Amino acid sequence: MTDRIVGILILFLALGYALEASRMQVGFLSDPLGPRPFPYIIAILVGLSALWLIFKPDPNPTWPPPRFWPVLGLVLLSLVAYAYLVVPLGFILTTTLEMTLLSVLFGARWWQGLLGALAFTLAVYFLFTEGLGVTLPVGRIFG
Amino acid sequence: MRWVTLAVVVLTIGGALAQFTPRNPECIAPAGAGGGWDFTCRSVAQVMQDLKIVNQPIKVTNVTGGGGGVAYANVVTQRGDDPNLIVAASPATTVRLAQGQFSRFTERDVRWLGAVAADFGLVAVKADAPWKTMQELVAAWKADPSKIAVGGGSAVGGQDHMKVLLLGRAVGLEPRSIKYVPFDGGGQALTSLLGGFIQVFAGDASELRAQVEAGTVRVLGMMSPRRLPAPYANVPTLKELGYNVEWVVWRGFYVPKNMPTPAYEFWANALRQVERSPEWARIREQNSLGQFFMIGAEFQVFIDRQVNQFRNLSRELGIIR
Amino acid sequence: MDILQALLNGFGVALEPFNLLLVVLGCLVGTLIGVLPGIGPISGVALLVPLTFALKMPPESALILLAGIYYGAMYGGSTTSILLNIPGETSSVVTAIDGNKLAKQGQAGPALAMAAWGSFIAGTLSVVGLMTLGPLLAQWAIRFGPAEYFALMVFGFSTLSALAGKNLFKALIATGFGLMLATVGQDPQSGISRYTFGFLQLEDGMDFLVVAIGLFAVSEVLMLLEEKTPGAVRAQVGRIYLSFKDFMGSLFTILRSSVLGFLIGVLPGAGASIASFVAYTTEKRLLGSKARFGEGDLRGVAAPESANNAAAGGAMIPLLTLGLPGSGTTAIMLGALMSLGVTPGPQMFQKHPEVVWGLIASMYVGNAVLLLLNLPLVGLFVRLLAVPAWFLVPAVLAISFIGVYAVNNNPFDLFLMAVFGLVGYLMRKLEFPLAPVLLGLVLGYLMEINLRRAMTISNGDVGYLFSSPIAVGLWVLAGLSLLAPVLVARFRKQGLGGDEEL
């Protein structure tokens, strides 16, 4: 059953993908083939495979226990927050927080996680910025 | 206009006294390592350090994406008044600005600093190609444009394509009849030329030097205002041959629009010192770059004119509507 | 004789104390960079270029250092693939398939040692190839035009079923997803943007590294979080040494993959990632039921790791003999050399023999150094698995963040990484194979662009795709590869029939 639902979703993805291709505005200086045929072929390939999935689904997968979903959501949310905050707050602060969160989720005590995260982040930060000359965000709030 | 230039000169001389010293200076190369912008940043940063113009090393950051658009948007929206930042630029920047490829941003959203060197476009064929001169190539091209594939290192609408279209226009060919094959960089286009898959390569002087010295390619015409030194000394410019095509790949910088005046003058003065130094002359020579120097208000005017010119050309040639 | 004399002079350069030090330093830094997930050869070489200017090195020394980092990073890339199922770089993605299975079976040590030996043999063979066949192969590489590349990509896809898990259609969907990702960005042939939805950050296309780290590393962390229950299978320290028998069993895989990887590496634009994919899929199909590919076979580690190192050696050929960079990494080396006053090109062997032969000799030295360096490290790396998960996993992820961020200096990539992490997690739960996504992404772009170049050149004549012996050869190979399962089955049946008659 799960595969059927997934198959339908993928079918919609393929249709949307093809629709977007059909709406491309091509200037008159394009090559003989143009930018559309390749996406069309991909959409057909994916669409047909999705149909197969709908008609011949695999047995249902084993989903994680319900209490895992909030954890998953938290981790993904923290990663998105990390992407937005790494420049304003700086690499050291954001990475320490992200690592602490993950450590705690992996079963560490919060102070264990925090100490480990801080020590590691600092070490890595100086290794990369001083040792290898990589630019990592310092954090605008400290600028 | 002249008094503006004069004012800038006076201010620049005064600028040296204005005591601005950059803190953690940075040069953004809006593309990956190994490209032209990366080279501009790294070599200029190196000379500024060697000449002790800056007392801290200039950090080079590669901010890639959108053909320089990501860096442009970044500078405009987030670092609009940063006094310690310069950003590498070239006609690839102005072409994209002219074609509106940097989303809503225009050439007025930054302040243009100056240019310190230039590369020049050229037209090359394989050493054993039947065309010995530009005139012979043009004759064959006009006779049947579908038989001649012209390759370049940029996408349709990009620098190398513009060169080809300009040449096509100069010889009286319809843009649609020209077969242009885009490659991922000049190196791959050159490989295809040597393999005989394309007949003509619209490249730059610096890319072709080793091949010209080895005699594997024949350069038919330069898109420079004057003839270049060896190994190009015997190659006529397209202008000499009567085709009004020039393509100057200047290498320069822009800075954040609201950079404080003392900082702007510091950087303008720094570029002036770099350009005059023997170190810079040596780097130019090693990389087959020509002399090209423009700074401050003069450069700003030059950029405004160039963007306008590219915009009109792109419309005329059908690249944008 | 000339070659030997030149090589001796080369060793004279490579064994100068300063240069020898640089080889060791390059190998060491390269291995470190390679081990760190997300930071691969390109970033490694790019990071160290400024150092060569700052120290005002002579060009041969600079090239020796950069090359050391290049193949050092290739060596190190397999480590996290094997230990943690987190690929160190794009060319070690397939290594994770069998490598991590082995680690979970307590075979992490032999797998790491196999990667080191495979890399050593492939690296050394590719230097021999570079030295003896360089100019010849360069001429071969030049004869690869758009039609030939298109056929090569078709051949690459024809081996796809080797990456499929239980359900071929799920593998097809995964490949299609990779192909979709390959079409994101500005289309060079028409100048228009496709599937960028107004994001400037997507104009240059999906970064392979961002997709790989998201799909593999982030989703692996999510899987580990889910499996955090007591008794879940985790990689164990287990055996450390590689037995002679295992080594001999993989020798032919290493040799074949070296040749394949080397030839692909010579082609400008193809590169180490494609080499590792094709070597893995080819070996899997060649060995068939004799091997347990996908369930933890040492040959599944040996094939991609040999191929990517051989490709790194092959990629030096167009650079040194023609002055044409075939990969991102060699493009950076070209830039560095030009700034140091050496213009690589057809006359490089005559004009700068000390640079070329010094480099070649240093590559022999470097490969030996890397083997000596990496074999003892195996014991150390394997013990990393004894570090508690609460520290090890977040730490590895933190380094991946640097890798993702430092490529483009763009936080948007971190956001994309998170999105691909979720996609990867769902794909794993639903039993979609992940490797085909990357295959589609790598091959898709080259496939489309070369087809369209070919059509532009031939004014739309499809016959052009079959117009050269190389192209026809590749089409035949692709056909054979697609038919291989059928042919092998028939062959086996006939063989059995023969036995019955006796």
Automatic annotation (TrEMBL), chain A:
Transmembrane segments: 37-55, 67-90, 110-128
Domain DUF1468: 5-137
InterPro entries assigned to the protein according to its UniProt record, in alphabetical order: DUF1468 (IPR009936)
Pfam families tied to this protein: TctB
UniProt keyword Aminoacyl-tRNA synthetase present: no
UniProt keywords, alphabetically: Membrane, Transmembrane, Transmembrane helix
KW Kinase (keyword) present: no
Protein name in the entry: Tripartite tricarboxylate transporter TctB family protein
Native source species: Meiothermus taiwanensis
Species lineage: Bacteria, Thermotogati, Deinococcota, Deinococci, Thermales
From TrEMBL, chain B:
Keyword annotations: Signal
Residue ranges crossing the lipid bilayer per the database entry: none
Annotated InterPro entries: BUG (IPR005064), Bug_dom1 (IPR042100)
Endpoints of the signal sequence: 1-18
Family: Belongs to the UPF0065 (bug) family.
Official protein name in the record: Tripartite tricarboxylate transporter substrate binding protein
Native source species: Meiothermus taiwanensis WR-220
UniProtKB/TrEMBL annotation, chain C:
Domain DUF112: 20-439
Pfam families: TctA (PF01970)
Transmembrane intervals: 20-51, 63-84, 114-137, 149-169, 261-282, 319-343, 355-373, 380-405, 434-451, 463-488
The keyword Transmembrane is annotated on this UniProt entry: yes
Keywords on record: Membrane, Transmembrane, Transmembrane helix
Top-level taxonomic group: Bacteria
Keyword Transmembrane among UniProt keywords: yes
InterPro entries cross-referenced by the UniProt entry: DUF112_TM
Protein name: DUF112 domain-containing protein
